[in-house]
Each structure stands twice: as C-alpha cells, then as structure tokens.
C-alpha cells in the first residue's frame, strides 16, 4: 500500500441551506504527515473535519481512506479514524475509567495494551478515573477525549482546536503525543488558530471562503 495516501479528499462541497461552507476542498495526506488547518472564524474548519471524519454527509466530492471511499458507514474503516470535535461528548453515567475500558473494548484493543493508562497518567488524569466526565473541567474533558483518541492508535487523527482549553503543561504533552503519532505513521489534521509549542506541522492548510490551499513550509 506504500504510495497510497492515508487521506485523500477531492472537491468537497458542504452546504447549510444557502450557506456554502465548503466550496470544493481537496487535500492529500500520507502516512506520518501532519497538517494544521487554519482560517478565520466561520471559515469552515469544523465543517471540513466533520466531513473528513464521516460525521457529516458531503453535498459533492469524495473522501478516500487508504485508497477506499470513506463516508463513515463502514465499521472497519471507522476503526482507523479518530476524531476529537471542538466540544467532545461523553456518556453521562460512565466514569472516565469506564470510558477508557469501553473504547478499548469497542475497538478490540489488546487488554494488555496499557497505552490508555499511560496517557491518563501523562495528562494527570490517573487520580481522576473514578469521576464522571460531567464533573470534569473543560480542559480535563479535552484531555480525556485526547486519551481516548490516541489510545486507539488511529491511522488518521482529526482534531478540532485540540489546544484550545489546555494549560501549558498539557499543551506540551499534546505536542509530544502528536510527534510520537506522526513518527508511528499516523496522518494528522488539526485545526489551530495559533502556533503551538513544540510541534511543527508538515503542511498548513488554509481555508478561505470555503476554499482550501496548502502551504508546505
Ligand atoms: N449546523 C449548521 N447550520 C447552519 N450553518 C452552519 C452549521 N454549522 C456551520 N455552519 C456555517 O458554516 C460556516 C462554517 O462554519 P464552521 O463551524 O465550519 O467554521 P470554523 O472555521 O470551524 O469556525 P470557528 O473558527 O469559529 O470554530 C459558517 O458560516 C457557519 O455559520
């Protein structure tokens, strides 16, 4: 499969009524490539990430995951993708630790694989596993969502404003995790309004008026 991009999007159009949020967005990312998605408020960043994740239907265009059309319907394909939206959602009645176990089971991860536990510790959540995410602060919920996403070792990682609510220490942890995921061959798209500490993307994707342009530093 070498040479086949992990993610390829061609001519994505997404409309909300009369508003055309995306007007033909195209991109391609290989294994181990990380792109930051930038653009002003309302430029369409969240919309693009939701379309790439298979959460929103496209009005036109096509998304391919490892060379196969992807629309979020196929379970096996879905296990390859992790998406952390701008406001992560959790089950009301499950503790943080139960979320971790649920994601491990749902994705058939090896129970002996303690990456999730290691991630909980790196984000300082190891003493908070018996609490409900509802009782977490916004930054703690973001950390838990990131733990659940990275623990799956996805081929494609999509992150909507992942640094937003994180404190400087947690931001450094996230940058280190992105670096490790990139080294392991994960393709990454993360929307960001600012430069972040400790991580330099391979490409910057700029959304303007629903159109996407790529800059490779
Ligand atoms: N559910 C919706 N219904 C109607 N319009 C929507 C919906 N979601 C997004 N839009 C519109 O689509 C456009 C793109 O919105 P989107 O949230 O993707 O932008 P964004 O770049 O993520 O913005 P921000 O930086 O503020 O998070 C905006 O004009 C927005 O008003």
Automatic annotation (TrEMBL):
Domain ABC transporter: 7-217
SUPFAM superfamilies: P-loop containing nucleoside triphosphate hydrolases (SSF52540)
Keyword DNA damage annotated: no
Gene3D superfamilies: P-loop containing nucleotide triphosphate hydrolases (3.40.50.300)
Any one Pfam family match given in the protein's UniProt record, by short name: ABC_tran
Keywords: ATP-binding, Nucleotide-binding, Transport
Protein name: ABC transporter ATP-binding protein
Organism name: Rubneribacter badeniensis
Source superkingdom: Bacteria
InterPro entries given in the database record: AAA+_ATPase (IPR003593), ABC_transporter-like_ATP-bd (IPR003439), ABC_Transporter_VariousFunc (IPR051782), P-loop_NTPase (IPR027417)
PANTHER family the UniProt entry points to: ABC TRANSPORTER ATP-BINDING PROTEIN ALBC-RELATED
GO molecular function: ATP binding; ATP hydrolysis activity
């Amino acid at each position: 499969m070498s040479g086949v991009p992990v993610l390829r999007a061609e001519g994505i159009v997404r409309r909300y009524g009369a508003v055309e949020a995306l007007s033909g967005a195209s991109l391609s990312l290989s294994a181990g490539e990380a792109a930051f998605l930038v653009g002003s408020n309302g430029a369409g960043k969240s919309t693009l990430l939701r379309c790439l994740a298979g959460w929103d239907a496209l009005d036109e265009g096509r998304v391919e995951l490892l060379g196969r059309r992807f629309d979020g319907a196929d379970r096996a394909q879905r296990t390859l993708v992790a998406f952390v939206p701008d406001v992560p959602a959790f089950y009301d009645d499950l503790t943080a630790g139960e979320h971790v176990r649920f994601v491990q089971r749902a994705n058939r991860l090896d129970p002996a694989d303690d990456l999730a536990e290691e991630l909980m510790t790196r984000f300082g959540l190891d003493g908070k596993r018996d609490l409900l995410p509802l009782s977490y602060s916004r930054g703690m919920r973001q950390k838990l969502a990131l733990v659940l996403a990275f623990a799956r070792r996805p081929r494609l990682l999509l992150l909507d404003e992942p640094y937003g609510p994180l404190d400087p220490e947690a931001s450094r942890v996230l940058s280190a995790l992105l670096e490790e995921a990139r080294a392991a061959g994960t393709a990454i798209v993360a929307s960001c309004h600012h430069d972040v500490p400790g991580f330099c993307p391979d490409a910057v994707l700029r959304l303007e008026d629903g159109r996407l342009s790529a800059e490779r530093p």
